[in-house]
Amino acid sequence: MLAANAETVFVTTALTPADFKPRRLERYLATAWESGAQPAIVLTKTDLCEDVEAAVLEVEAVAFGVPIHTVNGLTGDGVEELSPYLAGDRTVALLGSSGVGKSTIVNHLAGGTVMPVAEIGIDGRGRHTTRHRELLPLPGGGLVLDTPGLRELQLWDVSQGLEQTFEDVAALALTCRFGDCAHESEPGCAVREALRSGALPRERFDSWRKLQRELGRLERRLDARARSEHSQQIRKEARQRRRTQRSPRGRAR
Q: Are both 8-146 and 166-244 of the same fold?
């Protein structure tokens, strides 16, 4: 559990080669959509990016309908665009990997240093400073939840979120000739036709496949765990019945 009762999730990533990964954004978006919160993407460290507009276009290609904001943590430029998400005392949670500048955003929103930050290394990477989750009320109203940087984000029951994140693939799949099309060798597969024409980028499709497989493995593991727990409960109840039958009070006359 990363956060609860947040109206908006800021999916935060830095515009540096080490951190800017659209495939990672897809994973975060699937989790955010599934939570019921509204995601917004915040691209930080614009001062370290040579072509911010190109980066935004790349994000738009994987984040359909999701607002995208760019922020310069050094100057605070762009942070003012984030304030409306907090209006009406709403709660915003920040998610992202270590060192992307989440705590810097919180400090700008708060109008002062409320979370510790560290200088950027010579390789352009930020440093991990936040080690716990903290819910902070802001002077102008609203609450912001700063979270530690995530080294890895595993999927957890995000079937609906995955469909929203990959709505382009889902829309194509609906037009396949067969409803149970596996998009491999079936005739009339709209997904494979889009791949051939270039309308659907191969890396986008491969990412969808990868997350689908990961979600399938999770579901199978949870099903196995549920079956195991059910069997254990049955054995526990059987042992309890045998103990009751052997006891003097439970012995039939």
A: no
Architecture of domain 8-146 in CATH?
3-Layer(aba) Sandwich (3.40)
Model confidence pLDDT, tens digit, residues 198-226: 999 999 999 898 888 887 777 777 676 66
Looking at residue 172, its pLDDT comes to: 93
**Domain residue ranges of the chain, discontinuous segments joined by +:** 8-146, 166-244
Quote the pTM value: 0.69
pLDDT reading at 253 higher than 50: no
Per-residue DSSP letters for the chain?
---SS-SEEEEEEESSTTT--HHHHHHHHHHHHHHTSEEEEEEE-GGG-S-HHHHHHHHHTTSTT--EEE--TTT-TTGGGGGGGGTTT-EEEEE--TTSSHHHHHHHHHTS--S---PPPTTS-------S-EEEE-TTS-EEEE-PPPS-----S-HHHHHHHTHHHHHHHHTSSSTT--SSS-TT-HHHHHHHHTSS-HHHHHHHHHHHHHHHHHHHHHHHHHHHHHHHHHHHHHHHHHHHHHSTTTS--
